[in-house]
Amino acid sequence: MPTEDGTIGSVYEVVAEHPDGRITLRFTEGVLAGRTVTAFTDEHCDIAHARPLTPREKAERLLVSLLDPQQRLAWSAKRRFRLGTPYGVLELGALHNMSFWPKGPHWDPGHPKLLYLCVVPRGDLQRLPEADIWTNLLLVVRAEPERFFAVANWRAPSHTSWYRPPIAGLRLGQALLQHN
Amino acid sequence: MGPEDTEALERAAKVFEVELGKGGLAFSVPPGGRDRDAERITRFDPGADEIVWVRPVAGG
Prior knowledge:
The complex is a heterodimer. By secondary structure, chain A is α+β, with helices and mostly antiparallel strands. Chain A has six helices and eight strands; from the N terminus they run βββαααββββααβα. In chain A, β4 and β5 (88-92) form a beta hairpin. The longest helix of chain A is centred in the last third of the chain and has 14 residues, at 130-143. Chain B is an alpha+beta fold. Chain B contains one helix and four strands. A three-stranded antiparallel beta sheet of chain B has the order 2-1-3, covered by helices on one side. The A-B interface holds A 62, 65-68, 83, 95-96, 118-123, 135-140, 142-144, 147-148, 151-153, 164-165 and B 23, 25, 27, 29, 32-36, 38-40, 52, 54-60.
C-alpha cells in the first residue's frame, strides 16, 4: 500500500523466532502480502560481522597501530614503510632485502649510499603473519638499534653475495651515543 | 581489585616469566601508542595497557 511519502510499504507480523537468531515474518499488506520470509535480523548480522579477528588480521591491526600516518599510507600503498634510526633510514617491507641509507660522509665516494640488509626474527617464519614480522623488526630496531644493526647481514646493490656483520663503515656505538 | 583479578594478574606474571625465559622481548605499548612510545620491559607490568612480545632478531 502507498505510504505518505509515496513509496510502497509493507506490513508484516513475526510468526517465529528461531534459536539460531533468524526470524520468520509473514507479510500481511503491501506488495509482499501473503509471503513468508525467514532471515537473520540486522542485529544478528552485526554480531556475525564482529567475528574474532584472524591472526593475520590481528597482526595487521597491531602493525598499523604502531605506524605514523605517513608510514601507514606507505604500508597501505606499497606494503613498505621507512623509519629513521641512529644509523640512517631503514625501509621495512622486503624480507631478506631491506633498503638502508646509512648516515655518514656522503661526499666521500667510498661511503655507501644504499645497502641491503637482512635481519629476521629468530625461529620459524612460515607460520608468522607477515605483519608480525615487521612489528617484530620495527620494535627491536626502534628500542635497540645497536642490537638490530649488529646482527644484520648486508650487501651493496651491485653485489649479489651477502657479507656478515659488522656493516662496513657503520660505527655502532658512536652513532648511538650521538643519537642520544 | 577482587580475588579473581589478583589471580589473573598472578597468572599473567607467570606467563611473562615463562616467555622471558624463552628469550622473548616484551614491549609495553600505551593505548593508541606508536612504535616510538613502545617501551621495552623486563619485568611484568600489571599496569601496562598492552604487552607485545617479539622474538630476538638474527641476520637472515
